[in-house]
Amino acid sequence: MISVVLPIYNEEKGLKSFIDDLLTQLKDIKQNFEIILVNDGSTDQSLELIQSLCSFHSELKFIGLSRNFGHQIAVSAGIDYASGDQVILMDADGQDPPELIPDLISKMNEGYDVVYAKRIKRANESLVKKWTASFFYKLLNKITSIEIPVDTGDFRIINRKVVDALKQMAEKQRYLRGQIAWLGFKQTPIEYERKGRNAGETNYTYRKMIRLAIDAITSFSNWPLRLATISGFVCAFLGFILILYTLYAKFILKIYEPGWPSLMISIVFLGGIQLLGIGMIGEYIARINDNVKKRPLYLVDETNIKTHA
Ligand code: UDP
Ligand code: MG
C-alpha cells in the first residue's frame, strides 16, 4: 500500500481540485493507497472541506491537529499515522505535481529507500525567495557534515524502513529533508519542474522560513558554536598583541596618551563578539530546553483513523 501525506494549512481554495488530480493519478497506479490529510490548525474552512471530502472517498483519511504546529510537524504527524509500505510526502497546494508520482514509485522499485524530487525550475516564486533559498542551502551544505541535497523540498517517497527510522528521531525541531539525509540508506533524486500554487498564497512567511533555517542549522551543525569559540580566540590574540604594544609604547617609546579611541573600539568590538557568542549558545540551550521538556510533538484533536501506529 502507498500512503500520501498532505499537510494542509488554509488551503480551502485549491484543495478540492488538487485532491481530484491526486485521486486520478493514484487510481491509475492500480495499487492500494490512502491519502492522509493533516489539517494544521487552519483558520479557514479547510477542515470542513477535508471532512466532507473524506465522506466521499474511502481512501481519504484526516488528522486534525489541535492548532497550527507548522509544516514540518504536520508532515511528521501524517507519517506517524501512515500505514503504507511506501509513503509519499508532498505539498497540498499543487506545487508538487501528482503526475510525478508514477516516476517516484517506479524509481523506488529499482531498489531505493528514498527517492526525492529535485526541482530544476521554480515557477511563480519571488526572486527573493529563490535567492534566500539558494544562499541558505549553500551555507547549510558548507557547515554540515551530512550531504543535504540542494533544490529539494519535502516532495519524496520513502519506504517503511525509512519511516520507522524517522519515528525513532525524537527531536522537536523537525527538518525532515535533513533528517532523512542523515538516516542514510539508498537515496536518489529525480528531476521535475516546480509549478506555481493552484490557489491561495504561500503560508511560509519569512518568519517561518527563518525559523526553519535556524532549526536546520542548529540540528545538523555545531558550526555556530565553533564560530563563537574561534572569534573568541582571535579577539584574545589581538588583545594580547594590543597589550604588548601598549606596554611598549608606554615604557620604551614614552608615548602616553589618553587612549580613548582604542578603548572604545575594543569595548565595542568585544561587547559585540560576546553578545554574538552568548546568543549562539542561547540558541542551542533553548533547543536543549525544548527537548528536555519531552512535550508531545503534536496533539490530535480529531481523526477518523483508528489504529495509531
Ligand atoms: N503548511 C502547513 N502548516 C504551516 C504552513 C504550511 O501545514 O504552518 C502546508 C501548506 O498547506 C502546504 C505546505 O505546507 O501544503 C507548503 O506550504 P507553502 O505552500 O505555504 O510553502 P511554500 O511552497 O511557499 O514553500
Ligand atoms: Mg507551496
- CATH H-level homologous superfamily name of the largest domain: Spore Coat Polysaccharide Biosynthesis Protein SpsA, Chain A
The biggest sheet amounts to: 8 strands, mixed
Report the CATH C-level class of the largest domain: Alpha Beta
Structural class computed from helices and strand pairing = alpha/beta
Total domains:
2
Shape: elongated
Q: How much is the average pLDDT?
A: 85
Report the count of strand segments: 8
N-to-C SSE string, H for helix and E for strand? EHEHEHEHEHEHHEHHHE
Bound molecule kinds, no repeats:
uridine-5'-diphosphate, magnesium ion
Amount of helix? 40-55%
Our measurement of the CA-to-CA distance between the termini, rounded to an integer number of angstroms, reads 15 Å
Please describe what this structure looks like.
The protein has an eight-stranded mixed β-sheet with strand order 7-5-6-4-1-2-3-8, sandwiched between helices. It contains ten helices and eight strands. β1, α1 (15-29) and β2 form a beta-alpha-beta unit. α9 (223-251) packs antiparallel against α10 (260-292). The longest helix has 33 residues, at 260-292. It has helices at 15-29, 46-56, 71-81, 101-108, 127-143, 160-167, 176-183, 206-220, 223-251, 260-292; strands at residues 2-8, 33-39, 60-65, 86-89, 114-122, 152-159, 187-194, 300-303. It is an alpha/beta fold and 309 residues long. It folds into two domains: 2-205 and 297-303, Spore Coat Polysaccharide Biosynthesis Protein SpsA, Chain A; 223-292. Magnesium ion binds at residues 91, 93, 95, 197, 202. Residues 91, 93, 95, 197, 202 line the site of magnesium ion.
